[in-house]
Each structure stands twice: as structure tokens, then as C-alpha cells.
Amino acid sequence: MTNNPRQTHDTLPFRLQLTPMQLPESAYQPIDAPWEEAESALGKTGDSKKRKGCELVLYPGESSEILVQLENLTNQTLSVEFTLDGTFPHQWCRVHGEGNEIPPRGTMEVLLYFHVAADFFESPHHWQVGQSLVLDYQGQLQIHSQLQGESDSQAESARDRNRQYHVTAPFALFVRPRSLYLNYLPELFREVDFIGRLLKLFEEAFEPDFNTLLSLWGYLHPLTAPEAMLPFLAHWVGWQWSPALSQQKQRRLIARAMELYRWRGTRWGLRQYLHFYTDLPLDEHLPEAEKHICIQELGGQGFVLGEAEMGGDALIGGGQPYHFIVRLRHPSDQWLDERLIRNVIEQEKPAFCTYELYIVEERENAAELQSSST
To answer: Which CATH number among 3.40.140.10, 3.90.440.10, 1.10.645.10, 2.60.40.10 corresponds to the domain 6-178?
Structure first.
């Protein structure tokens, strides 16, 4: 797209071209003012349908570029400077280029990089109460150039040397929301800007619910569900919600609830429960007596006529059948809630079993082992 820039002289020593790197999906129409007023601001005349200015569509959160190409038509070095002006916020645009001189018969490319904030339509920083949101902007790229050095061609007169040229190249910017629903329409309707903006209203209303349905699995999994959903998920699997536990522990217990139910009443199941509630390691590779969570079942039925042997498993006064001992060893910097642990044991053990609970620190337990060994 070659522009017809306004200039102070009839002839220019260079050729200028502005090319939008992102073509619009439809024929965008100005929203804030009639196109004739916009053309007047840009220095254009004529019917809006025949306009030839550079037009660029800006989608919030995405990058858009305008490529500026300059070709030196002379045999002299051309120095150029760029100035950007317009009705759009200046922080939207950055100019990327290398050097400011074009060699004889050489070319230069400069990139106008535009980026609009992703929350352009939501944030109140882009509009004021009582005023409409501006979506159409005009810009001007002003190019100041000057020929330098001696010319190798005699056709160029001395008065053309060191002459300064000032050129203004206008362009238009349209800020639009990207609409997914346009992809479901025939191409004829995609060319109308109003239809795209109208569909965006429905898209903003329906898409959050649609995305929620797509990610519904995340709301129903204990490890990814929102905090407000956890009590419901706990009730769903019949798990008793305990405010005394951290949220991370609650998530792990709810996720493993069905597996733990199948092992309820067994030593393995009780060890898993205590592991989740206390964060003590399982120590599967260690002997039972050396584990941090030690559960020992006491054998023997005491003195039973016809079954007990004197000097063997006979105990005067009877014994405690189905009795086990739970011993927890924890570091000195870790505190265990004995009341919570007893509630877990009472909940998981068979009703006819009895137990003893010992909670000791690791260094105390190590001292006991050392004293017993000596």
C-alpha cells in the first residue's frame, strides 16, 4: 500500500511505503466519528469506500506491526529521522530500526510495533465515567530527511544538495475485540464490522460458561478444585471435613478416600491414615520397630484352659486380646496433635480392639535405644 504523503516539495528523493503486517478480517468502519471527519483529521479527501490510507487492526493482548519501507532514489546518502504522533496513547507504540542513514540507491526498513493491554475493554484506566470508550485512532508518521555529500550524477543540481524534506504519512488504528463466532458465519457476513462487534457481546456472555464446562473436570478433582468446592467433594465421598487439617492435607485425603475405605480396619490402612495426618514418613524399607509409624500387634490370648501352656504364653489374671501398640517418632521441631491422632485411631481400628499410643521425639527415642543397648 503506497501512501501519498503531504510534502513541502513536489519531488521526493525517496519512495515511502507503509504496509500493515496484519490484514483486517473485515472492512472496519469508524465508530467514534464519521469517516469524513476522520479523513479530514488525516488530511484525506474523497469517499470513505475509496480510501487508500494504511489501516491496522489492534487486538488487545496481541501484537501488531506496520512496516515502513524507504528507498533512496538518489546517488547521495540520505539521513532520516522519524517522529510519531497521533490520538492514540504513545505507550502503545515502539519504533524499531537500525541506523538513520540510507546509502545511495539503498533501502531502509522500520517497524512500528503496537501492543494494546489485554484488559483494554475491562480496565477503567482506558475510559472515564460518562464518556464512551474510544476505539478508533489516527496516527501520523513524520519523516525528516536530508541529502548529504556530493552527488555522483551531474543531473542533480547543486540546489538539491543538503535540502531538507518533511513528509507526513497518515495511518488509522482500529481497536477491536477478537471474535470467535465470526468463524461460523459465511464470508459475506464477516465483511461487516458491525456484525463482528454485535457477536462479541454474545461471546463475552456465553464464553465464560462454555469454558467452565470444558474445564468441569478441574472443579470435581480434589487436587485442582476451588477451595469452596472442597466441603462438597468431601461430603460426596463421605469424608468428614476436619478444619484442624491444612487445605493441602484435606485435598490429599479426599482424593485417596475411596482407597482408604477399602483398607479400613487393617494395619496398612491405619498407617496410611497416620501418614496423611502427621506427615511422618512410611519407611517401608525399615523393620517395623524402626519405623516412624510403628504399629505392633501383640499375640497370645492369655491363660485359656486347654490351650495355654505353663511357662509359655500363660498369664495369671488374663491378657488383652486383639491389642496393639502405636508408636510415633517425630523430629523435635515437629508437633503432633495427640487428640487428633487418637480420633484417627478410634475411627480406623476395629471396635473390639484396644491399643496403646506412644508419641516420642526422635532424639529421646534414640537415647532410650542407647540406654537399653548398654
So the answer is: 2.60.40.10
